[in-house]
Write a structure and sequence with these properties.
6-stranded parallel β-sheet; 220 residues
């Protein structure tokens, strides 16, 4: 039975990110028990079934009724769907509900870094001086964000992204695995950076760029 001292969590979405979040919670709890996962919400899964060993509590729209004293964890988002994530949360009545931020104990977070509500920071991430993450930002394993980087709300950085100093990532942008971004670059809102890309010039809002150096591509 969960302790009254633990924070109850409800995961939003039953995809691969929710499996990662469960592993992050387990690692946090090994350091010091802090969280209890009640279950998850997903419109495509059957109420009462199980996913990754936790119960399916209902669809996303059930969150306001089920939440109680729990906090939500945003496990949504992919290269194709991330630009719609904020609108989905509003449509399902979740946008104004409380979301937890989770930071893996093996992440390095400078004291001057700032994290908004609903962020997820994976293992071996490095957030250096004055990095700012907005709300609902997900930073996957082995990313390095150097001094002064800003990632606006709903941004996703896939594993191994390396952002040099003062890079600015716009709202709901998605940066693919292993990309490298030169200092002082601006990546526009809802842009997508392909995996392994080297970004050496600004990326317009909504653009899809890939390659070394990264060039704009027609959206697939």
């Amino acid at each position: 039975m969960p302790s009254d001292d633990l924070i109850d969590l409800v995961l939003v979405g039953g995809g691969g990110t929710s499996a990662d979040v469960l592993a992050i919670v387990d690692d946090i709890n090994r350091e010091a028990p802090r969280y209890h996962v009640r279950g998850l919400l997903d419109d495509a899964l059957k109420l009462g079934s199980s996913r990754f060993g936790v119960p399916v509590l209902g669809g996303l729209g059930d969150a306001p009724r089920l939440l109680g004293n729990s906090r939500l964890v945003d496990c949504l988002g992919s290269p194709r769907s991330n630009a719609r994530r904020e609108a989905l949360l509003h449509a399902k009545g979740l946008a104004d509900l409380p979301f937890a931020s989770l930071v893996h104990p093996r992440a390095v977070v400078a004291g001057s870094a700032e994290l908004g509500e609903g962020c997820i920071v994976y293992p071996n991430v490095v957030l250096l001086a004055h990095v700012r993450l907005g709300r609902h930002v997900t930073v996957l394993a082995n990313c390095v964000l150097n001094h002064g980087v800003c990632v606006e709300d709903f941004g996703i950085l896939a594993s191994g992204a390396n952002l040099s100093g003062r890079v600015h990532v716009g709202r709901a942008a998605y940066l693919g695995c292993g990309c490298n971004v030169r200092e002082d670059i601006r990546i526009g809102e809802a842009a997508i950076v392909g995996l392994g890309s080297a970004v050496v010039r600004d990326v317009p809002a909504g653009a899809v760029v890939a390659g070394v150096p990264a060039r704009e591509r027609p959206e697939a």
